[in-house]
Amino acid sequence: MANSKYEYVKSFESNDKLMPSTWIVVRIDGRGFKKFSEDHGFDKPNDEQALYLMNACAVSMLQEFPDIVFAYGVSDEYSFIFRKETQFYQRRSSKILSVTVSFFTSVYVMKWKEFFPQNKLKYPPTFDGRVVCYPSTTIVQDYLAWRQVDCHINNLNNTCYWMLVKSGKSKREAQDFLEGTQAQEKNELLFQQFNLNYNTLPAIFRKGSCVFRDKVEDIVKYTECGDPVKRSRLKVITYHCDIIEKTFWDKHKHILR
Amino acid sequence: MANSKYEYVKSFESNDKLMPSTWIVVRIDGRGFKKFSEDHGFDKPNDEQALYLMNACAVSMLQEFPDIVFAYGVSDEYSFIFRKETQFYQRRSSKILSVTVSFFTSVYVMKWKEFFPQNKLKYPPTFDGRVVCYPSTTIVQDYLAWRQVDCHINNLNNTCYWMLVKSGKSKREAQDFLEGTQAQEKNELLFQQFNLNYNTLPAIFRKGSCVFRDKVEDIVKYTECGDPVKRSRLKVITYHCDIIEKTFWDKHKHILR
Amino acid sequence: MANSKYEYVKSFESNDKLMPSTWIVVRIDGRGFKKFSEDHGFDKPNDEQALYLMNACAVSMLQEFPDIVFAYGVSDEYSFIFRKETQFYQRRSSKILSVTVSFFTSVYVMKWKEFFPQNKLKYPPTFDGRVVCYPSTTIVQDYLAWRQVDCHINNLNNTCYWMLVKSGKSKREAQDFLEGTQAQEKNELLFQQFNLNYNTLPAIFRKGSCVFRDKVEDIVKYTECGDPVKRSRLKVITYHCDIIEKTFWDKHKHILR
Amino acid sequence: MANSKYEYVKSFESNDKLMPSTWIVVRIDGRGFKKFSEDHGFDKPNDEQALYLMNACAVSMLQEFPDIVFAYGVSDEYSFIFRKETQFYQRRSSKILSVTVSFFTSVYVMKWKEFFPQNKLKYPPTFDGRVVCYPSTTIVQDYLAWRQVDCHINNLNNTCYWMLVKSGKSKREAQDFLEGTQAQEKNELLFQQFNLNYNTLPAIFRKGSCVFRDKVEDIVKYTECGDPVKRSRLKVITYHCDIIEKTFWDKHKHILR
């Protein structure tokens, strides 16, 4: 065929299969979202609508890609865990990365209006992504703990920062003020200066969001006597809970099985 | 810091820098676009609006990413060539791949309404992507020739196929009929049976689309006598021309310099 | 410094760190050893001296590289397992591969005369190598089982082949004769035609060789009454035992800990 | 076959093909050769016999592997350039690396006695290796220039260092003395203090060694009149010449063709 003369260029494609029997994590991150959130008037330090939109994208991901068993999101980033034995795209790294990032982006733009009906997209939101493999369940749990600890540290800091700024400090002053302070001091700052108990803030801000399939009971019909007939099925749900302590994983053993 | 206990998980990220001084090609491909084009009622064998939308995305890509020097698109795929010495994301493969695919997808969804005002997106369009490096200009040109030859072969075949189907043959019959026929025979089929000279079809169908920066002359103002004052500048333009023959590259030496 | 002008060439070196927390296996293989063994008059199907030389090299490897916890050898190949958390050469694949293959080769040539005092090396023996990572202990055990099953299959076949050849068949006839026969039939062939019970052959031929550190008791001195004072220590030893059944691993839990 | 149950472990082997149409460089380096050269009483700063042995290994390499087109050695390291289009082991990195390092090591041990007849090997000499690809001829030349500049810098420094040590300074004093001095000052030190013109030192010390195939004329027979009949052929030869200036490459265009 005429094409064969040029087909040799395919030999430059590199094989990028990920190691079998390892957990595949795709982490997606907003590109330039500091500016994007300013340009689109997001609330600071957290915009609930923006987080709900991220969560809606994550739910769509689990519905579209059955081999994603867990997702964890905070701010403008989301991590997706594929089950250890997934054969999704034969574990080809580029395919997995590009398709998940593309799908996430596509849903983000399509659902934007639903969450920001008054707020037009000024330019295309973009996400970057990376793929990392982890050889054991313990290390995947540590990965997720790492992200949630990060969520905590950043959110506590950002809460202080924006309270200071809203109370009249310049951004520079607020930053200098917080430089080097510990969690304890930040909690006290909020409580004493702003009468704010950090632990009463919405869990979605403090814990981030976990998306996974959980058993739910649906009423499928009623008997003649009017008693409900229930059936349990797996449904993609969103929680804002602690995943650092092992108790979560003990209670949800089916997730990282 | 509290985080350090878990931070070891970062050590599992692999370094994915691409070889320096090589041409980086990102090829983006519609995922499941056979179904997507049916579900959204695209014209067969080619939907002009769909191609214009793809081209609009490609133009946005060159405007957003200055290190892309050339793009070639056909059907639901687009290849983007980054200049050899680009330091875009320090040449990290995952970053380059994910950001370009994400941006392309984002523009595709945002501009959809512009090209299909009557046609609502039924679900999120998704693209996959891959990154390939080429060590020499000649091989990059061969890569592009490979895609354009593919465009020609597929388009000639699809044109025949859909003419047969529209003339009453079943899809299976049309396929069997074309099985094993050569270009010459397909041209004759079109001419004799459908009175269609293949070479008179729109170049965008036959040649695909080339997007690159070219010198254009703008009239910036008029002299007092009414004579136009022109200035030449680089503008991202879209052509449908032959890039298999070396004459194109001889005429546009600045592109793959 | 004058050098800096050219030092950019270092940037072309790729990072080749192996995934952390995985078992690293280096498998070394004789290059062209069919010819090498003929040219040096090795006994067929197995040359005991040649196997002892391979084993001596493996023992040297464990003595030189403390992070190798187990080695398994058969014929002209040897597999070396590095402990999961080894930081040997920061887990850089090329370093680990090249240094182990080089050391093995060096010992092989240096010790040759010890095992073949009458038999001069005619040309440089050469080995190739590869590095593979395994994420779990079970899979490493399966890897070793794979090699030992291979040993069994090949040795049974080779034993039959050479018995046939030594009994007067041509090499081609012997091969055709064995084509498609099962283990059962091969055992019977040996027993009925050559009065040979395969299971009485030396274990080193049938099982290959396992090299690892095991507790041994040494008499370090004698008491005044002449009673021996023993001390246990780890010593690199060579066994020819079954490693397919899990019993071996249950008994030697310290190896793949 | 019985083996299939375990054969899945092969799927963990990663594909490591090197980019096509690029120059493959294997650099081999003595492992712990500072100690090795002391333990074997090498002359300082340069041991001619040790260099000749390295060169003999390099010559054997070019004779064994026809796709090596050039080698450059200095001290205990040697770089081997494979031609751009080589299909040696289908360009599999591990195979190329392990086989070349193994062969080099094997020859080193086998030829040791030839160069050090009075000097027994005390333990196995070992080399590490790495593989790097370069996309263009210019960059390969820069790579070689990088090694030769390194040779020059190190040799000038080592020559000063050992002259100082041999003249009675302690190693620490010699090192401190040279710290931060420029090439110019080092040349003057040698000339004024030790009456040594650096440029009169043997070229093998100052320039390192280049091994490649060059046309030589052999007298193949004599005519009846006694006139020699010559034939030119390619022979692996060793030179000690400048490869930083492009003049060398202009004169030997066939090497990196």
From TrEMBL, chains A, B, C, D:
One of its GO terms (cellular component) is nucleoplasm. Its EC number is 2.7.7.79. Its main location: nucleus. Residues 139-245 form the Thg1 C-terminal domain. It catalyses: a 5'-end ribonucleotide-tRNA(His) + GTP + ATP + H2O = a 5'-end phospho-guanosine-ribonucleotide-tRNA(His) + AMP + 2 diphosphate + H(+). Mg(2+) 1 binds at D29, G30, D76. Residues 6-135 form the tRNAHis guanylyltransferase catalytic domain. Its cofactor is Mg(2+). Adds a GMP to the 5'-end of tRNA(His) after transcription and RNase P cleavage. This is tRNA(His) guanylyltransferase. It comes from Cinnamomum micranthum f. kanehirae. The lineage of its organism: Eukaryota, Viridiplantae, Streptophyta, Embryophyta, Tracheophyta.
